[in-house]
Design goal:
- It is a single chain.
- With 206 residues, the chain is α+β, with helices and mostly antiparallel strands.
- It has 2 domains: 3-69, no CATH class; 83-205, PH-domain like.
- The protein has 4 helices and 14 strands.
- The chain has helices at residues 3-6, 57-66, 71-74, 173-190, and strands spanning 24-26, 33-37, 42-46, 52-55, 83-100, 103-111, 115-121, 125-130, 137-140, 144-149, 153-158, 164-167, 196-198, 204-205.
- Strands 5, 6, 7, 8, 9, 10, 11 and 12 form an 8-stranded antiparallel β-sheet that branches.
């Protein structure tokens, strides 16, 4: 995952979003910069003051979440929630088992053709609008039975439907995972469904 996707907002000042490519990220708000250092399990941080330090990325991700994570970019001044991003959307066509030493480890899905468009997150669910029109899609948070994230995509499993993959050419899939988790928890609580305590491989409530 590119570092700017892991640190999608600045751990130093909270500015959202950061910029950068590959193993580097930078903040246009305060001027801080971040770069993975060998063997890749730590990040060198140069703070606005010029002071440099090497830290574990877990500590930086925690600061991103403490600064509001995806919430501040999604929550509008009037209290509504809306966040959107360019996306490539596809659906699973088939699954094949993955085994090792005779033990089932999981399943590998074959994805269908990707359709470019825009995904929008609101209070009640996710909506997909395809480029050039055509049939849109909407997935209620109450009908999503599982979510998982990869280095470039978010996968959701709607109830009674095939797995959907949303690949983000520009935005952070980690941001979207945390955004969907936040909104799903709120939706479940608001509708009296309980507290969501697990999202992968399935949604579990307490």
């Amino acid at each position: 995952m590119p570092l700017r996707h892991l640190l999608y907002r600045c751990p130093c000042c909270g500015h959202d979003p950061t910029s950068g490519e590959g193993d580097g990220a930078a903040c246009a708000g305060c001027g801080a910069s971040f770069r993975r250092v060998p063997p890749g399990c730590h990040v060198r941080v140069v703070e606005p003051s010029g002071a440099a330090r090497v830290v574990h990325p877990r500590a930086l991700v925690r600061r991103v979440r403490e600064a509001g994570g995806p919430r501040t970019a999604a929550r509008k001044a009037d209290g509504t929630v809306r966040y959107e991003a360019r996306v490539m959307c596809s659906e699973a066509l088939s699954f094949r088992p993955v085994r090792r030493a005779g033990r089932l480890l999981g399943f590998f899905e074959s994805q269908g053709r990707e359709r470019p468009g825009t995904v929008v997150a609101g209070r009640e669910g996710l909506s997909f609008e395809a480029v050039g029109g055509g049939a849109g899609r909407h997935w209620s948070f109450l009908d999503i039975t599982g979510i998982q994230v990869s280095s470039s995509a978010l996968q959701i499993k709607p109830r009674g439907a095939v797995l959907v993959q949303l690949r983000f050419p520009d935005d952070s899939p980690l941001r979207w995972e945390e955004l969907v988790q936040w909104l799903m928890r709120e939706a479940y609580t608001e509708h009296g469904r309980g507290l969501v305590v697990e999202f992968q491989p399935r949604v579990v409530v307490a």
